[in-house]
């Protein structure tokens, strides 16, 4: 009988520890989702946004004027950071008709807790659908020291560089 009691006790503690661990992870993801939603609406959808810099200012103008603005949130347990990736595609203040080629594409990666930028990708399209990168950097990966030359040249470079931050 004593052996069975020890087995049940051990099983209970394993179950309790696993449940507490999973609950903590869920809490972190939920907290990150709430912070990211608040961050997105305050900084990109309202006129109250306080992020500095011209790219963020233009992003607010585009999001408020009808361009499609989406975001994705992810809590990175390893770094203890809540990342928000904002994507904006549009025709400078007009809703994008189905099948239309956008005039601009922008990604902004922020730590939603600390309001610190971790990366930016911006590109402009010509009338034929060809894209020119105008700004691209990712903290600790691509940092431009060449003035007006983007640190990364292609959208896939930016997305590949931020992938570990958004998936871990």
Low-confidence stretches: 16-24
Q: What radius of gyration results from the CA coordinates?
A: 21 Å
**Tally of contiguous helical segments:** 3
Mean residue pLDDT: 74
Query: Proportion of β residues?
Result: 25-35%
Main sheet characteristics: 5 strands, antiparallel
Strand-and-helix sequence, N→C? HHEEEEEH
What's the number of domains?
1
Keyword list:
single chain; 168 residues; alpha+beta; 5 strands
Short account of what is shown:
About 40% of the residues lie in helices and about 25% in strands. By secondary structure, the protein is an alpha+beta fold. It has a five-stranded antiparallel beta sheet with strand order 1-2-3-4-5, sandwiched between helices.
Textual characterization of the structure:
The chain has helices spanning 2-45, 54-64, 155-167, and strands at 69-76, 81-90, 104-111, 116-125, 131-138. It has 168 residues and is an alpha+beta fold. It has one domain (2-167). A five-stranded antiparallel sheet has the order 1-2-3-4-5, sandwiched between helices. The longest helix is centred in the first third of the chain and has 44 residues, at 2-45. The N and C termini lie far apart (44 Å). The model is unreliable at 16-24 (pLDDT under 50).
Topology:
Layout: H1 2-45, H2 54-64, E1 69-76, E2 81-90, E3 104-111, E4 116-125, E5 131-138, H3 155-167
